[in-house]
Design brief:
4 helices; alpha+beta; three-stranded mixed sheet; seven-stranded mixed sheet; elongated
Amino acid sequence: MEFSFKRNMIAFFFFIIFVGICDGVVHKVGDSAGWTAAVYVDYSLWSSSQNFNVGDTLVFEYNPLYSNVVQVSRSEFHACTTLSPEAVYVTGNDSIVIWSPGHFFYISSFVGSCQAGQKLDVRVLDGPNLTGPPMKFSVYGPTAQLDGSYHHHSDFAAILLSCVAMACLVIAIAFLIVPQYCC
């Protein structure tokens, strides 16, 4: 009886850790102003006031008639060019899940927007955010491709699958380790 209780407690502990790993913070870029060049928003100041972690989501809200979101390289970011963008978003309500640590750069490719300050430099810390509220999952709209076509994608399925896989891994590890320490 005691062995089963200890095993359940350890499995519960691993589950709590797993839930923390699948959590992420939703960051609305520019807060109430959103992603715009119509009014001045200091996106550098906004970004420096945030803590970005793996699993977090960036939400870009904007008018697609006047703006877009283009993920670019560091040099393209500083030059406000989009010679070879990594991704282009055009829906006006784009959510981008941060899957890895690193440095990410976003600009608007509309004429004059980037030069007016509509550019975002995001530094993502290594590891999940264990302190924020749970991530709000959603099915994302179409993403514009470089050839002008669109494709629809759902990161909800990818997030769900990765969380289920993580849960299975944690449970398997718990049941392999627990008998060595409980009995």
